[in-house]
Amino acid sequence: MAGAASALFLLDMKGRVLIWRDYRGDVSAGQVEKFFSKLIEREGDPSSHDPVVFDDGVTFMFVQYNNVYVLTAARQNCNAASMLLFLHRVIDVFKHYFEELEEESLRDNFVVVYELLDEIMDFGYPQYTEAKILSEFIKTDAYRMEVTQRPPMAVTNAVSWRSEGIRYKKNEVFLDVVESVNILVNSNGQVVRSDVVGALKMRTYLSGMPECKLGLNDRVLLEAQGRATKGKAIDLDDIKFHQCVRLARFENDRTISFIPPDGAFDLMTYRLSTQVKPLIWVEAQVERHSRSRVEYTVKARSQFKERSTATNVEIELPVSSDATTPTVRTSMGSAVYAPEREALLWKIKSFPGGKDYMLRAQFHLPSITAEESTPEKHPPIRVKFEIPYFTVSGIQVRYLKIIEKSGYQALPWVRYITTAGEYELRMI
Amino acid sequence: MSGHDSKYFSTTKKGEIPELKEELNSQYKDKKKDAVKKVIAAMTVGKDVSMLFTDVVNCMQTENLELKKLVYLYLINYAKSQPDLAILAVNTFVKDSQDPNPLIRALAVRTMGCIRVDKITEYLCDPLQRCLKDDDPYVRKTAAICVAKLYDINAELVEDRGFLETLKDLISDSNPMVVANAVAALAEIQESSAKVIFEITSHTLFKLLAALNECTEWGQVFILDALSSYKAKDARDAENIVERVTPRLQHANCAVVLSAVKVILQQMELISSADVIRNLCKKMAPPLVTLISAEPEIQYVALRNINLIVQRRPNILAHEIKVFFCKYNDPIYVKMEKLEIMIKLASDRNIDQVLLEFKEYATEVDVDFVRKAVRAIGRCAIKLDRAAEKCIGVLLDLIKIKVNYVVQEAIIVIKDIFRRYPNTYESIIATLCENLDTLDEPEAKASMIWIIGEYAERIDNADELLESFLETFPEEPAQVQLQLLTAAVKLFLKKPTERPQEMIQVVLNNATQETDNPDLRDRAYIYWRLLSTDPEAAKDVVLAEKPTISDDSNNLDPSLLDELLANIATLASVYHKPPESFVSRVKAAVQRPDEDEEYLEGQDSGQNESSAPVQDVASTSGPANAPHAPSAAPVQAAPAPSAPMPDLLGDLIGLDGALVPVSEPTAAAPSGPPLPVIFPASAGQGLQLSGCLIRRDGQIFYSLAFENNTAGPLDGFQIQFNKNTFGLAAAGPLQVPSLLPGTSASTLLPMVLFQNLSAGPPSSVLQVAVKNNQQPVWYFTDKVPLQALFLEEGKMERGTFLETWKALPDSHEVSKDLPTALISNVDATIEKLSASNIFYVARRMLKDTSQDVLYLSGKVPYVSGKSISFLVELTALVGSPGVKCAVKTPNPEMATLFFDAIDALLR
Predict the structure, then answer these.
(1) A147 in reach of chain B (CB within 8 A)
(2) Cβ contacts (< 8 Å) between A195 and chain B: which residues?
(3) What pLDDT was estimated at residue A2?
(4) In what residue span(s) does the MHD domain sit (chain A) (predicted)?
């Protein structure tokens, strides 16, 4: 089974073609504009429409970013997952090149855009999307030199993400373990869904072609090595690695070995679906005292150990869109009414473990209401926070070995942090 | 590092083109480069700058890579419109393909492949041959794809020059990216060829698995997609592949993961060990779950695929239902798909939690989502007997909220629940009746009326309730009228008192005399007749016990599901439709340089908008008219789409160089019976055309006769065909001499298939345009007689015939009575049919009716070298008119065309 895209389009918000590249000569710009105007006419907002649409013999797949739509048209049964992901990568490449991808930056750089479109896809088949390596041989005006460039070895190498000959005076690696907690609590206070998505974010400043090996307190690995696993080891549900990690090797003996790209990248992501106790618990009571006055009593509790502290806590309490004249009192932090988000934002700079804080707020409502009972929006309470030096999973980096043939010593720096991901508590 | 290219878009209006021309010819490099940028900018905003062709091409010989790329880009866009001038670029291309810099070598070969001009294609061969064996892998990987490009333009050339062998050799290349691109190119070529070109053997399998570990993420997807079609020898072979592919589940790229899942699922079919299967299921679950946290667009594709996977292997995600719970900010298209999967995974174990979720969703603001959530509750009730009561409870809670559309939706699903569990939950009818006046949607009204009629004996005031609907009877939609009619009859049969009797009089009168709807009228007459002749029989009919309905949430046909699972991650798996229902391979226009100048104007750089009637942006966002639409009933070939005529020529002219100029006339007068008139002189201002498609020696011809009844001579005849089901197009020039007034000429125009295919249901319509130098363009339609298409090799052995017949599902059998067809002599008929390549297989006699039954077979060519076979059963009484024709075929939607052919042949 094979399938390729026919063309790639960059469109403005009205669906007009800004720049396009025809790969196979079987669709036209007119076709995509016609399709898009129909879509806008029918849906109003195309971003709420299915991202894969069939029209008049052609399949359109699109992704929106800022004021630009990136779209492919295909006449074949192409790999939809691959195409849509490719569109996201195209956005990443443009972002790398122009800092921001928007209508103006595309116009300002149309020459480079054409060059990139020629390199990243050939005859409708995705080819190469490593922005960093691309920028070694496709340069914007400011960096362009008159010498003729050659394709970097990396483009076709087995190590396609790193060029040779990188030099640093000081060889360093920064490794951030970032866990984000996703939680959904039902209106009856029951935790419906909770999971932790972790990422090992690396920034490498290393010379040459360094061979790295990472050790974690992964239970499967430790057990395989016959070490005691009491309490310290953790189970990771699903691990995803950056393409630099040798997957066959990992499958074989759970060793994480790789030659890293230069600069920042996500080495691995993992997921844990074990039930976690909500780190910050919020209870809100809403009382309607009369037709025109409503009172909120909100309690927030931190349910982690006292030695940790959550910072930059922001609790977003949804408020009816026609509420006015708020009066708010808090036992800690400050609260502001944000009518544009239809919410009251309660911000607490520092929230140590095992503490309770309170908020009371009162709003006025218009006394006249519509007769017809229409459903109201029920947005959940949302919470944002960061807890440094703490991970929910208990993951630990046991070692990070870096070996390069020149034999330099590199310094690894490791940091841990937990943040709130999609942290939602439904209100009654 | 933002650029300032926008300055190139500003124009000076006055004399822009001459100014650019001058700048392009400037001796200063910078000025030249700026001018080319301005030209490209003009091209970008859609201005025609093709007249600068020569000047731009003159800038091609440059050391400056950026400038070279821009000129190449210009060439890709305009070479088609300047085929004669495009040849000017060839020398530089050939030179660049030998440049010491691999970037330039690759660029040259990549660009040449994008220039779809025949003359250039020939010059491409030598550079391509060299580049396929280049030292630099970057050049080889580009050349590999170029072979697929060339194949698309000129397949013969590729085969003759041995490029396919070289391409196959590249599978053993030392560089993984070259291997991956060679795989992609071979897979594409295979798709459009009838011959076996690319087959994975145990040797290549090893190479592919090795390259899989080392190539880029996109290359991994090419290789995995190719692997999924590999048929393993046995369970061990399959296990080996799975073992090598499983590590890909850990890849950060979702497309790699999904394609790996596809390969594993395919190979699992061969593995019999329950342990291995259980283990693999366990391994696939976490990666599938992780896909649900990808970008929303990817989530959408993943969810559509998971929907298929859980239909085949429900246990993979049986414990993971929670990950499909909707988040408040999920886009609506993701929420809708999650709901579908939640219904599929709902079980007695998790139903409580699932219902809580559905209830939550039913109070959100997006009306479509809310409706779907309410329906989901109903579907769970029908699926899980033990949960039905809980579901009813939730529905009643929702009705109490009194949101209009929630109430209506709830009533619709409760009707289904009543049908699934008769005589169980009638106690809630009273609550439903309270909401009678708020119903304003036909489906909800019809459902409520059905409930009242069905349970009339338990509703004290059923007559009053129905009466309240009767006042508006004439204005109600048909759906509601039908239900009202039936409900009134049920009420009367159950409670034959005075009021229902009056009511039934009113309804029957209304339905038989006041309405134009034949369904309603017929149903009313049937009831009337039943009631007046035998009320007991009426009871038996109207109040008969109805079959209980069942859950339809796993509704894909198993063979379709198989096909879709083999297509995981592709568009087919997103649409839940087989690829052939939406893939339209359109050969892009290859411009022949010797073509008449005059017609190039309409060319619009080779891109033309189809004038075929445009489907609405598909309401289901899938392709319409797929042969596997949920209702498996044989699809009647729809009448010809009435294309908007005025646009036709614009469309026609843009197509595949099939517009052929008249060359010297030759005498090729066809003999045989007179041709039917397809375009009368009255319509053609005196020009009359007769014609018919015929088959001769395995070749299709359009046998045509031109008659000039005008006052002056006519010459310069040309013919063109619109896109059609069989992709018929002229294979050579139309050879008609100039016609003096009152003369006529005949010709045989050779035709080819699959040149310009139209999408949509099969149709025999052939739209033709004919032109001459003296008259306007004439459009008319002819029919494609299927009998001209049957292949010489359509004969089937008895055994094969029987096997094929059995293998096809019954839904693929269609039959039709041909009242005017006649078999007067069986042997003569067999001879006649076999002359049209419909071959005799077997014959038997029906004893009781002394009818003859003939079994025949035939094949019609189909896209990409395949063919559609027809297994035929003709039943007739020899000598008397009337033949029953039954046909079984993998493509029942073609049956109507087939019947027409048989009907024509048996006259």
Answers:
(1) no
(2) 323
(3) 64
(4) 170-426
Q: Dihedral of CA B357/B363/B368/B371: which sign?
A: positive
Mean pLDDT of B568-573: 96
CATH classification for the domain delimited by B615-784, as one of 3.40.50.12780, 1.10.1740.10, 2.60.40.1150, 2.60.40.180: 2.60.40.1150
Ordered by start, the domain boundaries in chain A are: 7-156, 172-276+392-425, 280-388
Phi-psi region of B157 (alpha: psi -120 to 50; beta: other; left: phi over 0): alpha
Helix pair B254-268, B217-227: axis angle to 10 deg: 20
Chain A residue closest to B179 (CA)?
Answer: A156
| CA atoms within 13 A of residue B95's CA, in its CB half-sphere | 10
Q: Which CATH number fits domain A7-156: 3.30.450.60, 2.60.40.2150, 3.40.109.10, 3.30.460.40?
A: 3.30.450.60
Chain A residues within an 8 Å CB radius of B113? 123
Residues of chain B with C-beta less than 8 angstroms from the C-beta of A149: 65, 103
A280-388 CATH, one of 3.30.230.10, 2.102.10.10, 3.30.70.380, 2.60.40.1170: 2.60.40.1170
Candidates B225, B244, B618; nearest CB to A1: B225
**Are both A172-276+392-425 and A280-388 of the same fold?**
yes
Listed by number, the residues of chain A in 55-84 with a beta carbon closer than 8 Å to a beta carbon of chain B are 55-59, 61, 63, 74-82, 84
Residue that wins the pLDDT comparison between A220 and B431: B431
Q: Of residues B758 and B719, which shows the higher confidence score? A: B719
CB-based contact (8 Å) between A331 and chain B?
Answer: no
- What's domain B798-905's architecture? 2-Layer Sandwich (3.30)
pLDDT bracket for residue A163 (50, 70, 90):
confident
Tell me whether A422 touches chain B (CB under 8 Å). Answer: yes
Q: How far is the alpha carbon of B718 from chain A, nearest alpha carbon, in Å?
A: 25
Say whether residue A238 is in contact with chain B using an 8 A CB cutoff. yes
pTM over 0.80: no
Domain ranges, ordered by start, for chain B:
5-244, 460-545, 615-784, 798-905
Asked: is A172-276+392-425 a CATH 1.10.287.40 domain? The reply is: no
In eight-state DSSP terms, residue A263 is E
Question: Are B603 and B649 contacting, i.e. CB atoms less than 8 angstroms apart?
Answer: no
Mind listing the pLDDT tens digit for each residue in B248-265?
A: 999 999 999 999 999 999
Residue B765 in this model has a pLDDT that exceeds 50? yes
* ipTM field: 0.88
Res A279 pLDDT > 70: yes
Q: CA angle, A337 as apex, A334 and A343 as ends, to 5°?
A: 110
Residue in chain B lying closest to A380 (CA) = B328
Looking at per-residue pLDDT, the higher value among B722 and B619 belongs to B722
Cβ of B397 under 8 Å from any chain A Cβ?
no
| φ, ψ at B565 (rounded to 5°) | -65, -35
Mean pLDDT confidence for B165-176:
94
CB contact under 8 A, B252 and A115: no
Residue type, B211: A
Q: B5-244 belongs to which homologous superfamily?
A: Leucine-rich Repeat Variant (1.25.10.10)
Which residues are CB-neighbours of A226 under 8 A, at least 6 positions away?
Answer: none
Q: A397 pLDDT exceeds 60?
A: yes
Nearest chain A alpha carbon to B80:
A25
Report the range of poorest mean pLDDT among A143-157, A388-402, B559-573, B759-773.
A143-157
> Residue B65 — pLDDT band, cuts 50, 70, 90?
confident
CA distances from B217 to A2, A134, A151 (A): 16, 16, 19
B65 vs A149: CB contact, 8 Å cut-off? yes
Distance CA(B907)–CA(B899), nearest Å, equals 13
pLDDT at B613 over 50: no
